[in-house]
């Protein structure tokens, strides 16, 4: 029996970008000791006050069907959060609670794209973006950004790609590059959206992890609230990756239609998790404490890799990763990552997992204790220096 073209085409007939990660996990399953610096998974558990609230809600019997759009109390908390951060009036009618930010990205594209529509996204990109767009029936179109520009998208490139497109997906602070888009960059994004009548889907799951500059949501720019869908999550801000708690914020009509979609797909998020999310959003100190860990490790990486031969650290303005340019070694990011795993059992993500604009780079997740991270980076630096010497 033949499967649908839609599901067979999610990866576009190529790689899904996760081969190195799968290989590292297989080595660990076989008993090998592997230091994983691959995925954005915290090295601490969800904070105790959130777990206590989750536990109490479950014991109190909140384990049945959830209200599909989300608890009113939680939607109010998310609305207040977005109103404060964007200056745009926001109510519960503008909020849908989703099972994580990934479900929000899918719902947003389903809401604004018809089958065959061109949906733009920036390159480098989070590895799921093209597949999410294909799963929604649209055609992903990558708009390349450049290391020399700090991976900030150029307005002219956006304008050139936007003709006939339906949507544009942006992510700031950015995964994998760590770029925080400037006001000038976002003005260019907004101008392209207004000029070409695009829906803008803004992935802001790292909005609490900003090390340089200021996070600005494009929803806050003139004429953008009515055409912007903001995707958020508690995964990165509150170490709740496994709880699958996210949201989409946007115009009332769009949210109403996405509630229809949720009714026939996810059917809501467990109520005891939603009640824990209310607790999480009510304790902003928790996200500040978590963010400070990654700020410290970003600075540690900069000190450790300063002046190293064979690689260059790209300044990380936000998020929980650093990008390394390893082109002086003569290897692709993919070849370097596999060689590093072979030689030292250290797993990092090759830049090619995130698009061709990141070829010859690595993404390193800052997700182990400081001493282990420093030792791993020192090993990586020596490895790169030796390869660069051979290449020279």
Automatic annotation (TrEMBL):
<dbReference type="InterPro" id="IPR015424">
    <property type="entry name" value="PyrdxlP-dep_Trfase"/>
</dbReference>
<feature type="domain" description="Aminotransferase class I/classII large">
    <location>
        <begin position="33"/>
        <end position="380"/>
    </location>
</feature>
<dbReference type="Pfam" id="PF00155">
    <property type="entry name" value="Aminotran_1_2"/>
</dbReference>
<dbReference type="InterPro" id="IPR004839">
    <property type="entry name" value="Aminotransferase_I/II_large"/>
</dbReference>
<keyword id="KW-0663">Pyridoxal phosphate</keyword>
<dbReference type="GO" id="GO:0006520">
    <property type="term" value="P:amino acid metabolic process"/>
</dbReference>
<dbReference type="GO" id="GO:0030170">
    <property type="term" value="F:pyridoxal phosphate binding"/>
</dbReference>
<dbReference type="InterPro" id="IPR050596">
    <property type="entry name" value="AspAT/PAT-like"/>
</dbReference>
<dbReference type="GO" id="GO:0004069">
    <property type="term" value="F:L-aspartate:2-oxoglutarate aminotransferase activity"/>
</dbReference>
<keyword id="KW-0032">Aminotransferase</keyword>
<dbReference type="InterPro" id="IPR004838">
    <property type="entry name" value="NHTrfase_class1_PyrdxlP-BS"/>
</dbReference>
<protein>
    <recommendedName>
        <fullName>Aminotransferase</fullName>
        <ecNumber>2.6.1.-</ecNumber>
    </recommendedName>
</protein>
<keyword id="KW-0808">Transferase</keyword>
<comment type="similarity">
    <text>Belongs to the class-I pyridoxal-phosphate-dependent aminotransferase family.</text>
</comment>
<dbReference type="InterPro" id="IPR015421">
    <property type="entry name" value="PyrdxlP-dep_Trfase_major"/>
</dbReference>
């Amino acid at each position: 029996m033949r499967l649908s073209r839609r599901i067979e085409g999610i990866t576009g007939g190529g790689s899904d970008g996760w081969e190195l990660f799968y290989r590292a996990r297989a080595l660990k399953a076989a008993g090998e000791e592997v230091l994983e610096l691959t995925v954005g998974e915290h090295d601490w558990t969800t904070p105790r006050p959130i777990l206590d609230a989750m536990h109490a809600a479950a014991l109190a019997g909140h384990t049945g069907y959830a209200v599909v759009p989300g608890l009113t109390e939680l939607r109010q908390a998310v609305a207040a959060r977005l109103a404060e951060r964007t200056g745009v009036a926001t109510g519960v009618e503008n909020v849908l609670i989703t099972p994580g930010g990934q479900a929000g990205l899918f719902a947003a594209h389903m809401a604004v794209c018809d089958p065959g529509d061109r949906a733009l996204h920036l390159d480098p990109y989070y590895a799921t973006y093209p597949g999410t767009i294909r799963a929604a029936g649209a055609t992903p179109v990558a708009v390349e950004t450049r290391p020399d520009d700090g991976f900030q998208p150029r307005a002219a490139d956006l304008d050139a790609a936007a003709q006939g497109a339906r949507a544009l997906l942006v992510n700031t602070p950015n995964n994998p590059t760590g770029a925080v888009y400037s006001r000038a960059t976002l003005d260019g994004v907004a101008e392209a959206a207004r000029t070409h009548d695009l829906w803008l889907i803004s992935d802001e799951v790292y909005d609490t992890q900003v090390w340089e500059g200021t996070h600005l949501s494009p929803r806050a720019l003139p004429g953008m609230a009515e055409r912007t869908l903001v995707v958020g999550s508690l995964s990165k801000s509150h170490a709740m990756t496994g709880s699958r708690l996210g949201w989409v914020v946007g115009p009332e009509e769009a949210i109403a239609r996405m509630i229809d979609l949720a009714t026939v797909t996810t059917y809501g998020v467990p109520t005891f998790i939603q009640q824990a999310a209310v607790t999480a959003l009510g304790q902003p100190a928790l996200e500040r404490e978590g963010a400070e860990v990654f700020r410290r490790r970003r600075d540690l990486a900069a000190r450790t890799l300063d002046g190293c031969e064979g690689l260059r650290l790209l300044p990380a303005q936000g998020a929980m990763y650093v990008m390394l340019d390893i082109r002086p070694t003569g290897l692709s990011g993919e070849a370097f990552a596999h060689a590093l795993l072979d030689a030292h059992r250290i797993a990092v993500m090759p830049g090619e997992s995130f698009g061709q604009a990141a070829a010859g780079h690595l993404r390193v997740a800052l997700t182990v204790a400081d001493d282990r991270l420093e030792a791993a980076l020192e090993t990586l630096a020596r490895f790169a220096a030796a390869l660069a010497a051979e290449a020279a």
